[in-house]
Amino acid sequence: MQRRHMIALGALLASASMLPALSVAAQDYPERPIQMIVPWGAGGGTDAVGRVFASLLQEDLGVPVNVVNRTGGSGVVGHSAIANAAPDGYTIGIMTIEIDMMHWQGLTDLTYEDYDILALVNSDPGGLMVSADSEYQDVESLLAAIKSEPKGTFKGSGTGQGGIWHLGLAGWLMAEGLDPDQVTWVPSEGAAPGITDMVAGGVDLVPSSLAEGRSMIEAGRVKALATMSEERQELFPDAQTIKEGTGTDYTHAVWRSIAAPDGLPDDVKATLEAAIKKAYDSEEYQSFMKDRGFGLRWADAEEATKVVGDDDARLGKVMKEAGLAAN
Amino acid sequence: MSVMIEALGLVFQPYVLIVIVASAAFGMFVGSIPGLTATMATALLVPITFFMDPVPAIAAIVTATGMAIFAGDIPGALLRMPGTPASAAYVEDAYAMTRKGRSQEALGAALVFSAIGGIFGTIVLMTASPVLAEVALKFSSFEYFWLVVLGLSCAIFVSPGAVSKGLIALLIGLFAATVGIDNPAGQPRYTFGNVELLAGVQFIPAMIGLFAVSEVLRAVVNRDTPRPPIPKNRGGGIFRDQWRNLCRYPVQVLRGSAFGTAIGALPGAGADIAAWISYAISKRFSREKEKFGTGHVEGLVEAGASNNAAVSGAWIPALVFGIPGDSITAIVIGVLYIKGINPGPTVFINDPQLIYAVFVVFLLANIIMLPLGWVAIKAAGTVLSVPSKVLMPIILLFCIVGSFAINNTPFGVVLMLIFGVLGFLMDENDIPIAPAILGLVLGPMLEQNFITSMIKADGSFLAFFERPIAAGLGLFTIAIWCIPLIVWAVTRMRRTA
């Protein structure tokens, strides 16, 4: 116990002086610090995943792995920074599902094909949440009301306009045979402000991942109606799957992957993939994700590339029909 | 009571106390460099807290952020370069005091009343969290819209000089805030196809440019006619005058702390708005209005207490409902989850000793701020005796590092330089700079809350007055606008009559 304390204290002091790691790997790669680009702000979920991976990779590879937040522009800035770096293994980054959306919006020419995707390390299904005092206490009655009331009666929130949870909701409405804009979208700066606004009576529903509403669900202020996954979630056993609730087979999930610029040398790629797999399997990562309520999902490079590609096509379709894609 | 003793036992351990002192020094270092923010200090600490028990982990973050926010006042007072938008509200007064040789008193006031505000906020946090959190939950975009409008109005009314010039500064800030894609429609605006501009004008490089780079430019332009030297610091210690200030302005201290805590408890508002509103209230009700902006300590006392109280207040929704009040509490909520403390009403029942330990850490962090802040002020005071031709290049260096570090991109440095020239031109034309900063910070909130309110209300303006709290705030804001007009009309009528 005492020793562990001393290690932590040492690390605290070291961070102030930015001491580099002392050990150096025997092989050629890596021989200098690696930069890990996170396209979203410090403190968010993606940032947390990036930082955990950075510290685990640092331990395994023996060189410092520095997290760099390149934020803004709905993720375009950070994703561009990863793709435009030299493919030498010294710049990697966390790639999020926005890569499958931003080129449809006409914000960038970048697609997932501009990256070497190394692994998928997390997946969180979308959900459906309402305020605890909402008159709709299951997904079936909510859907019936959305159907019967005029278009725009219901308001949803939880991301910006055309953001991932907006698409999840629009995709669900389409799957139920409704117009994608049957529920009016109220843009917010993320799930937390959307949920707060819902409890304050500003909007009717939030289709974000249930993990993002966990504290409010546990506080009894928010009711989790449904999960957009194939099976119910361990943490939220009362939330039905969409299929159980309405009979429609609909799933929607966000994922986080680790990617490098396209054209990585094979040996570097192999080293990184092995280190990422090891970090994923580590006790630290597994318990960190469970404690935060984040979903664990592993897919190796090949499978991850397929998942990302499939989502690209699916989201493109939703965005075109919802009028959210650029012409 | 046994819970409290258990909590004290968790905190008063050599290891925890060493962590507190080490993180305090770290926070002091980060905060006193323009451009390195409290949020950045917190993010850097996160991986280290993985190896710690819950109490030292929280203690490290709470202490580092508290210190960083106070330390932001140091370059503000000594060099007119505020470390945070929250300290921009009273930077003119603090710097004017420095020029009169009262830098120690100014910084002493910032330190002491920061600590008092922080402790006040903590006591409220300990005693009234659940009630206040309930009120905070009633705030929707309609209420936040009025609150932001109120904050912006305050910036105009308190800025020294002509109201029209304050308004120009505010509009410059609001215009800069429209750049980028992070607006409610999600459409790129004024980006000219530039990927970096999609992220908009980042306020840290802009703030460094407007305040610090413009100061460097002024020093270069006025090289042959140096400003009169700053008189030797008269009077004695940092703390000596503060007792007198406390006795003279007890109402101000209490009012600043109370408003700060209340505004901080709202998840959509923070220390920035709190400091400006408090400064405006202080000026409005002061018996010496004309002294504001000329080196008067009264506004500094009230707004200084207010912004630190707001930092404590931000923890109210975070602990009670897991709703982050600002980017720092957002990070801390993540850390709490990892440590198995799930924020929410249950935490007060399941782990009361941990929550009370967190409260004790808050109090301790605010108290330890006094001796460490004293050391920092003493050390920083030597800056004033460095000749400007040596000091200014060093400041420019720090500015470049800070602007680069905020997003690790050279574009931040470009932004800083552009705003440096802008700040220089504004200052030459007597346009105050501080309102521009507030416009830049609050512009996105103003737009977001207005647009989302209009979407929710299907385009009906009346919705801004339909909810009770929104109606109250709206009428109050409009009254503030109208009072000067009415006063002007009445005096005119009397004159003609």
Keywords, separated by commas or semicolons:
heterodimer, A: D-Maltodextrin-Binding Protein, domain 2, 2 domains, six-stranded mixed sheet, four-stranded mixed sheet, 12 strands, B: 497 residues, mainly alpha, globular
How would you portray this structure in words?
The complex is a heterodimer of chains A (327) and B (497). Chain A is α/β, with parallel strands linked by helices and 327 residues long. Helices cover 40% and strands 19% of the residues of chain A. Chain A contains eleven helices and twelve strands. In chain A, the strands form three sheets. In chain A, strands 2-1-3-11-4-12 form a six-stranded mixed β-sheet. A four-stranded mixed β-sheet of chain A has the order 8-5-9-10. Chain A has a two-stranded parallel ribbon with strand order 6-7. In chain A, α2 crosses α9 (266-281) and α2 runs antiparallel to α10 (283-292). The termini of chain A are far apart. Chain B has one domain (2-224, 237-466). Helix content of chain B is 74%, strand content 0%. In chain B, α2 (14-32) runs parallel beside α4 (54-71) and α5 (73-79) packs across α7. Chains A and B meet through α1, α2, α3, β7 and α6 of A and α2, α3, α11, α18 and α23 of B.
